[in-house]
Amino acid sequence: MNYQPQDFLPIFVQLAAALAFIVATMVATHTLGPKRHSKKKDDAFECGIESIGDARTPISVKYFLVAILFVLFDIEIVFMYPWAVNFKQLSWNGFYDMLVFMGLLLVGFLYVLKKGILKWEK
To answer: What is the span of the domain harbouring residue 81?
Structure first.
């Protein structure tokens, strides 16, 4: 199939409209927005709690690893729900595919346990 340059015109028009909207919105908020600055207004505000200390304090890598693992196993449910809904239509091939999927997740989970990522204290 040969595409002609005019076939891409709607895409470029939509791209130009989106970019124009972004630029117009940024210019409008910058020109129309308030310009009053003070020490109190420019302070960091987090849920009404005063900011104390440095924001650059190191956080344990284990916290991020547990968060990533949570997202990983949470996404697993996203894949399992459609499988469960269409279980009868998928027949045995779908069942075997899910066994492979769950097996790979189990291997990954066992690897995580072996590495001690879920142990908070040494």
So the answer is: 61-115
